[in-house]
Amino acid sequence: MDIILDSVSKTVNGQIHINNISLKIESGATNVILGHTLAGKTSLLRLMAGLDRPTSGRILVDGRDVTGLPVRKRSVAVVYQQFVNYPSMTIYNNIASSLKMSGMKKSEIDRKVRKTAAMLHIEDLLNRLPAELSGGQQQRTAIARSLVKDAELLLLDEPLVNLDYKLREELQVELQDIFKQRKAIVVYTTTEPTEALILGGNIVVIHEGSVLQSGSTPEVYRNPATINVAQVFSDPPINLLNGTIQANTIRLANDIEIPLNSHHNILKSLPAGNYMFGLRPNHIHLSRVGEKDAEIRVKIELAEINGTETFIHVNHGDFHLVVQEYGIHPLQIGSDISIYVDPSLLFVYDEKGSLFLSPFKNGLD
Amino acid sequence: MSRIELNEISHSYLREPKGDTDYALKRIQSVWDDGGAYALLGPSGCGKTTLLNIISGLITPSTGRVLYGDLDVTALPPEKRNIAQVFQFPVLYDTMSVFDNLAFPLRNRHIDKNDISKRVQEVAEILDLTAFLKYKAAGLAADAKQKISLGRGLVRSDVAAILFDEPLTVIDPNLKWHLRRELKEIHEKLKLTLIYVTHDQMEALTFADKVMVMYEGEIVQIGTPQDLVENPEHTFVGYFIGSPGMNFMQCTLNGNVAQVDGAGIILDQKTADLGHKSQGKLELGIRPMHVELSSEQVKNSLPAKIKSVEDLGSYKIVTLNFADKILRAKLAEGASVPSDKAWLVFSPQWIRLYSDGRLVK
Lengths: 365, 361
Description:
The complex is a heterodimer. By secondary structure, chain A is an alpha+beta fold. Helices cover 23% and strands 35% of the residues of chain A. Chain B has a six-stranded mixed β-sheet with strand order 6-7-8-3-9-10, with helices on both faces. Chain B has nine helices and 22 strands.
């Protein structure tokens, strides 16, 4: 199954919410829509669901044009950020409610409700009311209500954002298994790069109502096509540095020089000029890891220790960098240290912000 | 400024609490040093917000005393305590300018106009809000609004402590990094006591010098982030801290070998001795980052089957079937993963034993 958005735009009171998006989303893998708050994720889901009608463009499900077809005539299930359950109905009836309208046989409804509840580990709570459940259990109920329908299109709009971090982690793992068992087209929105990576599958990165990049999730993470994508798809934020390549040397700021030698043949082959360099925090180290590493002197602004890793915020003049290093490194604020960078791990962007060279596309040379 | 002491605090929202389960807070005894950065970490319903509200004076505890230095403030309302509180959603006057929002707490205290202006400028400078002072608060982004909330606390020169109740919940991931960093810098600069309530371990661990992990109305461990990772004193702490949490397996001891469903895991002598002395149900705990994987049999390795591998960008999570249990291992970005069968090494120095949920020590 697939859903196709063909040049879809949505304008509300003169404001462009969705700007000419063309996309094909298929069943068989989780599809993640990643973007900042207000990037257009919810608008896009509402268009797919048929809750809103596009200002222009067409929407096709399995080749059928469904543009303008109201949501009740479509096979769609939606899970919202704010879980919605009927407060006066038991959990059983909440889950069964969407099936009862379809005129399904009672025994069949019962079988489906129990099966879905078991999948979400709420089978012991079926006689309770929503108010008697924790937030996590209520959201499980809302998810069960949407799963029980066997809809063609399953849309989840930041479904875990209101849950505790640890619960989120558990549901992320469980949902992956649940999605795998379904034939539906699954679309899941999030602001969080880590959540996108956990869910895996395919990703669509959106920003200000436009699609920036789409593809397999780990592939996009390793080859962010523009600086914008790299910024949206990084946690901690990716380090970005202006610089030049000239005479076999990368120059950052005025005085950081990274000589390129026979280890860096691909970088050496780039035309001389101005570039933007991206560097993921976990690719910078506090000690020399390999012989290819270049040394940069920096001043420590701040160190954050999370128990397994240390995030060190440093600067070199106007350059600010974040280093993510495994282990506990108590460092004195204001002191000068060296950091080590393997130049072949640099993402190289041209002046317009398009990816020129990815360390992963070309293999680590 | 002063240290804060919680003396035998318990609290129930019921009028006539009976058993232990009627208490949102069971028995809290704790001292918070002046100028420290603390986090209260725990899941929904663990009592962390109740405890925060007892410190700020929004709630009077059922029993026990709250001391600021030597002063008993248990019965004092929030406005009589030198405390500022920042909530999950920014509390602002949308129609007022940023300046007026920051000045509000001072105007309420009838402070001289020139002093107000000077103080507001200072705080705006610290929070990078100077450029926004004339703007209406309504038009600002979520992180700027949250900074104004914080600024309204900082602006009072008599503030002894600032309490944060999940302040970053509504903030995008990238901005979280930025704002968290500013909070740390403010702490470095002003040396105020900061108490930060959250369910998010990453926020708690990076923010605080000392983290108090709460579970079902009790503080189960107080420690540095390193303590909580390396020596969880309770299986709950092992589970709650770390992504994924610690692996736990029921075991029995045979000399210095822990038997887990037929597989024997070698312990160091000290851990084994402690295990033998303890009574109760024994569990072996090891963090995913300390489970080593090899494609070939090596010394002291045990066989496991690989169930799935998740590529999380800067690291990988491998889910394994081992001795009829599910285990998780955390590997570096570039690490190679055997395709089907793997040999596991559990480094003895990172194995912890738990008896009825408590670390044996």
